Amino acid sequence: MPSMVAIGSINLDIVATAPRLPTSGAKVTDAVLTRYPGGGAANQALAARRLGADVALMGRVGQDADADAALALLRESGVDLSGVAALPDAATGVALIAVAANGENQIVVAPGANLQLASASLDLPDVDALLSEHVAPGDAVSRAVGRFEGFTCVTLATTQEVDDAVLRHADLIVVNESEAAWYGEGLASREGLVAKTFGASGAALFRDGTEIARASPPAVSAVDTTGAGDSFTAALTVALVEGQSYADALHFACAAGAAATQRNGAQPSLPTREEVDRLLRG
């Protein structure tokens, strides 16, 4: 069982599910509203836990009812939450998500307490791997990645400045197509692994700018794509730390991402190891 720590955002997702997404300036009036726990680091922590890893989460929430809801599934699944601080002067992060009938989504995030993680001093546990997201220069996550001695996986975001040291030294960086294009040569020329995701078309894995593996996800009926990327990232990290080959690890990650699209909500949709293995067997 690999051991991991996830560092980053913890949110409560407020989801409006409708037959279609609104266009600019338009209104959709027939949506159904639900609330789910979410946040990139929280999603990855729970995904890794359900895939068999021993996981700790480090982040920030408010001292409010939203925090209880945001942490409920993590606590229920046995994720170590001792590194999650509840702040009296900030609200728990909230993501406003619109989901269409075909599973596509639009997301607006009010980060709240997550913003205060940047200035924190983090005492990292002794684990095999670190999962983190969107590391800006000088913030707590960037410093953690820089000094962590195990396997490091970093998820980047579009048009967000990232620490050059992270681009140079992270063992694995995960991006989608638009993020890969935005970071350009700085990402393409780095040493180490880069995973590029292409939605329903699958993903490719690169080392030192050369493609070393490519995989397509199993065919599924997508309900909600929220959390699929976090499921992919956690699964790829788990598989690589377990010692799976690059090709097998990428197939495993694509199956985990596909499995996460079959239910509503980010965290409720995250698959177990058995569900992923079943998809891989066809």
From TrEMBL:
Per the database record, which ranges form the Carbohydrate kinase PfkB domain? 2-273
Q: What are its E.C. numbers?
A: 2.7.1.15
For this protein, what reaction is catalysed?
A: D-ribose + ATP = D-ribose 5-phosphate + ADP + H(+)
Answer yes or no on keyword Signal.
Answer: no
Query: Which BP terms from GO are recorded?
Result: D-ribose catabolic process
Location relative to the cell? Cytoplasm
Q: In which pathway does it act?
A: Carbohydrate metabolism; D-ribose degradation; D-ribose 5-phosphate from beta-D-ribopyranose: step 2/2
Identify the stretch(es) annotated as Disordered: 263-282
Record carries keyword Heme: no
Provide the primary localization.
cytoplasm
Class of enzymatic activity (EC top level): transferase
What UniProt keywords are attached to this protein's entry? ATP-binding, Carbohydrate metabolism, Cytoplasm, Kinase, Magnesium, Metal-binding, Nucleotide-binding, Potassium, Transferase
Q: Per the record, where are the segments of Basic and acidic residues compositional bias?
A: 272-282
**Cofactors (names):** Mg(2+)
Binding-site positions, substrate: N11, L12, D13, D230
Concerning SUPFAM superfamilies, the annotation shows: Ribokinase-like
Q: What family is it from? A: Belongs to the carbohydrate kinase PfkB family. Ribokinase subfamily. Belongs to the carbohydrate kinase pfkB family.
Which HAMAP family does the UniProt record give?
Ribokinase (MF_01987)
PANTHER family reported in the protein's UniProt record: RIBOKINASE, SUGAR KINASE
Q: Subunit structure, briefly?
A: Homodimer.
What is this protein identified as?
Ribokinase
Species for this entry: Methyloceanibacter methanicus
